[in-house]
Amino acid sequence: MQADQRFSQVVEVRGHIIDSMILPKILDELMDLGVEFNIEKVEVGRQKRDPSYALIEIVASSQDDLDRAVNEACRLGALSLAVEEAEVAASPFDGVAPDEFYSTTNLETQIRWNGHWVSVEHPEMDCAIAVDGSRAYCVPIGDLRQGQPVVVGHRGVRVIPLERSRSPLPSFGFMGSQISSERPSARSVREAAIWMHQCRRAGMKNLVVAGPAVIHTGSRDYLCRLIEKGYVNYLFAGNALATHDIEYSLFRTSLGVPLDGGAAVETGHEHHLRAINRIRAVGGIRRAVEQGVLTSGVMHSCVTHGVDYVLAGSIRDDGPLPDVITDVIEAQREMRRRIHDGVQVAVMLSTMLHSIAVGNLLPATVYTVCVDINPSVLTKLVDRGSFQTIGIVMDTGGFLRDLLEELEALEKQGTAPATAVDGVSTG
């Protein structure tokens, strides 16, 4: 009887592969796929900062099973020793990728091109990799143009996994997703404050993604103070946040409800529409500020302190305000353009749809803090691939208040804990 044919390939894994769970994840995935593996070599770093190394032979009963196993191992951070050039194919039509195009993660990715490893610019999940000369970059499928060279298959592609920070302090590096209503919120808030403080000192950008609950809960003054102190470079929101913020400035209500505990106004349900109409009459939020129509609130603070904002519309919007981008694909592009402009920290405040949407656009290297009273919102964000997120289950108002206190304490200290961001010393 002829022996069963076996197919094998050797991969290697380097870095902090044990305490960052990279090696166990690869081995678990290989077992789930039903292939065999032989660990031919393991070298464990002796010191905290020393990298480790593993050499693994993957064995399968068919070439298809082997290819599938190697591809999954490489997706998790392994590198095949049989290095081949990346394969490209032309996009057949505008907005259409070639069959078998490589679908990206939000992790740092490289392709083998002309004998060199080339870093893929602007890592983002669920995109294609376009190649232009010596450049490689992520492109949403809908933005592809006919004839554009696109990477297909998994050959010549490697993914660099995030590793847990080696520092005892919460510095820029891998945090790991953490979502628990039992996790001490004070520690999480302090971590967020340190990241925002470090980010500002390093000359990088803080992004805030906010929902209308910031206004409804009476927390807008906290957000205004964050803007005024220079801790917000970009604000992403929808028509609702801006509308209710402006409604409160003009009528002292949010969705017609007085936030000071006073009696409901008989025609309060009309206030948000009247607020929208007044801003439309003067041509937009910026003009309303310039003409003295809008004199307070989050949007006023953004205009007066030079904070760029993107208001993305939805099918349920009233109005909307003139500043709202109603084409959702165009809103994505505007968000993406700002994210690529040095965003290092993203703080998401009580907005499930915007949090998930923005999370899909963020590279895994962006520190992401998601705050919501509902833990399922945080779980959905992580389950969609934003595994770098730290989830804080608490009221938005309490978070913003505590965040400001921590930032003010850091300012009084004069310096934040030392760290380095992309080679920029902040200590």
Q: Could you characterize what this model shows?
A:
By secondary structure, this protein is an alpha/beta fold. The chain folds into 3 domains: 82 residues, 2-Layer Sandwich (Alpha-Beta Plaits); 80 residues, conserved putative lor/sdh protein from methanococcus maripaludis s2 domain (conserved putative lor/sdh protein from methanococcus maripaludis s2 fold, Beta Barrel), CATH 2.40.420; 248 residues, putative lor/sdh protein like domains (Rossmann fold). 33% of the residues lie in helices and 25% in strands. The chain is built from 13 helices and 22 strands. Helix 11 links the parallel strand 18 and strand 19. The protein is elongated.
List the helices and strands and how they pair.
Blueprint (H helix, E strand, L loop, with lengths): L6 E9 L6 H11 L3 E8 L8 E9 L2 H13 L3 E2 L6 E4 L17 E6 L2 E6 L6 E5 L2 E5 L9 E4 L4 E4 L17 E2 L5 H17 L3 E6 L2 H4 L3 H9 L5 E5 H13 L1 E2 L2 E2 L12 H12 L2 H6 L7 H7 L3 E5 L15 H12 L3 E7 L2 H10 L5 E6 L2 H9 L5 E5 L2 H18 L6 E2 L2 E2 L2
Parallel strand pairs: 7-9, 12-20, 13-14, 13-18, 14-17, 18-19, 19-20
Antiparallel strand pairs: 1-3, 1-4, 2-3, 5-10, 6-7, 6-11, 8-9, 15-16, 21-22
Task: Describe the structure concisely for a colleague.
Helices cover 33% and strands 25% of the residues.
Question: What low-confidence regions span 5 or more consecutive residues with pLDDT below 50?
Answer: 166-176, 416-427
Shape: elongated
Compute the number of strand runs. 22
Q: CATH fold name of the largest domain, please? A: Rossmann fold
**Largest beta sheet: strand ordering:** 12-20-19-18-13-14-17
**End-to-end Cα distance:** 69 Å
Instruction: Give me the secondary-structure category.
Output: alpha/beta
Mean pLDDT: 87
Please give the oligomerization state of what you see. Answer: single chain
Q: In CATH, what is the class of the largest domain?
A: Alpha Beta
Number of helices: 13
